[in-house]
Amino acid sequence: MNTFGVAVHARWSRLRSWLRSISSRTRLEDDMEEELRFHLEARTADLIAEGLSPREAARQARIEFGGIATHKDNVRRSLGLRWWDDLRADLVYATRILRKSPGFTLIAVSSLALAIGANTTIFSVANELLYERLGVPHPEQLRLFMLTGDKKNVIHSSWGMFGRTPDGLTIADSFSYPVYQQLRRNNKALQQIFAFKDLERANVTINGNAQAAQVELVSGNFYQQMDVRPALGRAILPSDDGTPSTGAVAIISDGLSVRAFGRSSDAVGKVITVNMSPVTIIGVNAPGFTGAKSVQVSPDIFMPLSMIPLLHAESSRDGPILTSTRLWWVNLIARAKPGISDEQARGSLEVALTAAIRNTMSPKAGETMPRLELDDGSRGLNFVGKQFAKPLRVLMVLVGFVLLLACANVANLMLARTYTRQREMSVRLALGAARSRILRQVLAEGLLLSVIGGTLGLIFGYLGRTALPKLVFNAWENVGLNVPFNWKVFCFTAAITLFTGILRRSARLGRHAGGDQYRTQRGGQRNLHASSQGHQRTRHHRLSGRSVHSSRRRSGSLHPHPYQSQLHRSRLPCRSPSALRHQSAVKTLSCPAGCRSPRQYRRGSAFRSRSRERYSLGRRTDLERAIHREHTYRRCNLVA
Amino acid sequence: MPKQADLMQGTLDMLILKAVSLGRLHGYGVLLRIQQISGEQLVIQQGSLYPALFRLEHDGALRSEWGESENNRRAKYYTLTAQGRRMLTQETEKWNRMAGIIGDILDLTEVQS
Lengths: 640, 113
Fold this sequence. Notes:
The structure holds two protein chains of two kinds. Chain A is an alpha+beta fold. Chain A is built from 21 helices and 14 strands. Chain A has helices at residues 3-23, 25-49, 54-65, 68-78, 82-100, 102-131, 177-186, 222-226, 254-261, 308-311, 342-360, 383-420, 422-430, 435-472, 487-514, 517-531, 539-555, 562-570, 577-593, 598-614, 622-639; strands at 142-149, 157-158, 162-164, 170-172, 194-206, 209-218, 232-233, 249-252, 271-274, 277-284, 301-304, 327-328, 331-335, 371-376. In chain A, the strands form two sheets. A six-stranded mixed β-barrel of chain A has the order 5-6-11-8-10-9. In chain A, strands 2-12 form a two-stranded parallel ribbon. Helix content of chain B is 64%, strand content 14%. Chain B is of the alpha+beta class. Chain B has four helices and three strands, in the order H-E-H-H-E-E-H. Chain A binds chain B through residues 1, 3, 6, 9-10, 12-14, 17-18, 31-32, 34-36, 38-39, 41-43, 45, 64-68, 70-71, 74-75, 77-80, and chain B through 26-28, 31, 45-48, 50-52, 54-55, 57-61, 66, 69, 71, 73-76, 83, 86-87, 90.
């Protein structure tokens, strides 16, 4: 095996070993303990054999071995456990801190959760309605045919959607069948034009049960041009779409196949009746395919357009629907041809359209020809989307503001915390903690907060996207809007909130902590100066009073210090501001060691230097050295 | 200074691998064997042996199992794995090459001066 092979092998076994250490940590610690004990005992035995007394031998063995705790730490480090232990300790500490201030935690977490939840919901719905595309290959190629015309438009009778453009023209989406046939014949600018029409509702009988269903009638080339094939059975072919009232075949949607047949493949070949006409099921669509009407919901039944005379009552004025030149009703759509611009295609097709209108209708004097528009067809007819586009955009801006507000809210909370916790940070620094270590601790806290807020936000968002469409529609309506949970949207909102709100603030807190500790201390004293201004004291009194007070505040979460009162009584001369600083820092420092007397302080100091060694917290800072000096000095004073 | 520390660490690993390659050993045994082979000339800080042993096991060069020691105590025994043997060969080659190069350089300097 070459060097590379060895390296890969080593990496693999490192990973395995790491996972083993993590999963059976207690056993690892016990084994390590026992292994080191065995070493010491074996060495002691050897030393006794060399003639030392048992007591002396044990001592000698321990000295030769060196610091057991340090070696154990090195073992843990060599197993790659150090960062894991640190992370765990950080998280445990963070949990404690957050539990200690439930108000802060509650507000921060709920702002995060609501912001993330609300935004995920609204953005998911908006994304679904405004941007989602049909489940067919290359939906971006699809072009929907639209017509705009003025008041003197040649078209008088239409069945379909129409509205007004901002400049007062009517816009409609329907064509007459003869015009469609001529356009399709004369089209050279786009790929084959195909047609569809959605019937609002049809009565369907399946296995003797009657129900209402939505039907989409499609031209024979619809499946071929959409480039989709049914999951079961065959597609509707041009041969099915023949002479009027023939082609009694249907493809059912995945939804209907589940509701009526339990998704059984027996559905293919079954005969159902649609508006009293018997129709044979020839296929079942794949779940993602929704036809050409909308992206969100699929019609239940797809049938050839040639069947329309049987499904739709003929009006006496317009004549048979498939040959009527008066009634404009069918929707047209086509894929763009590569290399031909939309404007070129539009121009060429408009010429064909005008010719077709002149061929099929006899325009009266003064009537105008409609103008052809090629609209984006990637979202199908997209009636709902077009209807809700404006309100949804407004809503999106609104929740965008909510997001901003939540970010600001959380950021403010964190900022306030930064100031209240500066004292804690300076104590930690004074104890010798490295700057990066504090930063990591603070980040862990932010991370914990983020995870809680994010999880709640995820739950809100998930529930919201199911609840929202149900709130908009009536209970008896088939909810036409199915919003899938959008992970991308969730990740986006979560990332934005968490990053701006928490992590940046945490970094700031960490940076503050890493900054000038003297300034921090002085800042604490300035505050106190303001609070004690009302008291008329001598300078000496005020100084010592201030320092005691400030150290008590600075201790924060730590215990109030019994040693302080003694110090206060002792009326130590406060010779200079720097001496004062040291004095107050000393008292703060004494707390974690829990010292009540000079002897206990000595113990505490030994504890600190031990822990500094143990956690390799780096060199003593100048402040610490000064504290030490000051303390020794005062201890002598007190003892004397 | 870090360069030198690295070198020392590398050497300790190599010595441990060599010691264990001669037969199954517990941690204290590794220490004794290294001292014995070196003719008591090498002083190894005893505690620092264990981080190195654990690291080598972590890397897959050693395998460990609990067994009975000479005086019937439970002790952790280390054996060399195939991976460890490859590592030892590689390290030995590297060491010899390095020693050769440095030796040559030092010889050259003496001749010129």
